[in-house]
Input
Amino acid sequence: MIVLKKIVTILTALVCTGFFFPRMGRAQCTTEWTNAAGGFWNVPGNWSAGVPGPSDNACITLDATYSVTLDVTTTVNSLTLGAISGAHTQSLAHGSSRT
Output
């Protein structure tokens, strides 16, 4: 039941950020993922301008193959996934909180 609740939370967040229903044009990124090895969402050093918040347009578009683990409940203005060119795979996974 907890896993289903987390999946519903993630899908709700993606719909609310416009992931499934993109707006015309692409939002200007206010912070971008910078860790090509992957890592936890809530680590400021993984982002160009710190962990994104409710008014930020977060972009996970770094060319590489990696996973971003969503270790907190968060809200962003928009979320852009996918690199522009090259061989790449980005994934966003909900994980348990770090201790």
In short: The longest strand covers residues 65-70.
